[in-house]
Design a protein that fits this description.
The chain is 77% helix and 0% strand. The protein has 14 helices and no strands. Helix 11 packs across helix 12.
Length: 305
Amino acid sequence: MQYYVVSRLAQSFISLIGLVILVFFMIRMTGNPADLYLPDDVSAAARQAFIELHRLDDPIILQFGRFIGDLVHLDLGTSIRQGRSAAVIVLEAYPTSLALAAISMSIALVLAILLGVWAAVRPTGVVDRTISVLSLAGASAPNFWVALTLISIFAVGLQLVPTSGIGGWDHWILPVAVLVLRPLGLLSQVVREAVIRSLSAPYIRTARSKGAPDRSILYVHALRNASLPILTMAGNQAVAFINGSVVIETIFGFPGVGKLIIDAIVQRDFAVVQAAVIITATVIFLLNIVIDLLYALLDPRIRHS
């Protein structure tokens, strides 16, 4: 197990290095920050002073070498726009994104288990078909389209909830509803298929012959042995929450790391973009390792292999 963890960490580190190189060079293709932050009629001396202050006139290879050197010392740079540590700015935005992801994922997982098990009890029945159609529709609908539709209906038309921003609990309703939809659709289908396979296994017939109640058979025996594919999909969707928050947070004006990345790209705040990508990638890599370790805890065969 220790060898496996070290191996995964090494693979993640190599992937992170490749991502760092890609982001560093791509973000600089957006243009010179001096063109954005300085007025058109600025003097040549003032423009040169700005460029020298932020070392924008150095050769790109020299800038990259300095960036790697700072990164080794866990220095992710300073924001051009705010004049503060880029890492601090990103970490200040993370609690909002993590709270949004945690609430959405918890609701999606609970509802998916209930709906998936309900559909698996009577396959091809009316309930099963209804849940299957709705879950496929939810999984297929683009998040940005759902978000704009919900805003036009419930925020603009009915004026039941705010259109954007963060404040009271009502500001969270639409973003959570949008983020729940896709994982709920995918997870409910995975739960259904996994529970159906488990219900046909010999140990289920043995449990029934011993007089075990139906609730215990479904939620203890069948669901426990169907946990691996459910965990796989839940882990993938947790990662997708982190990646997909960019669009939803931007649409709803949610001050999370997703909106921060978009704003930093528009503002050519190189250090903030780099810090956000590096920290987010690190979180995703660690989350994948935790999920793999959970596999071993749930299935001893994986641990022994």
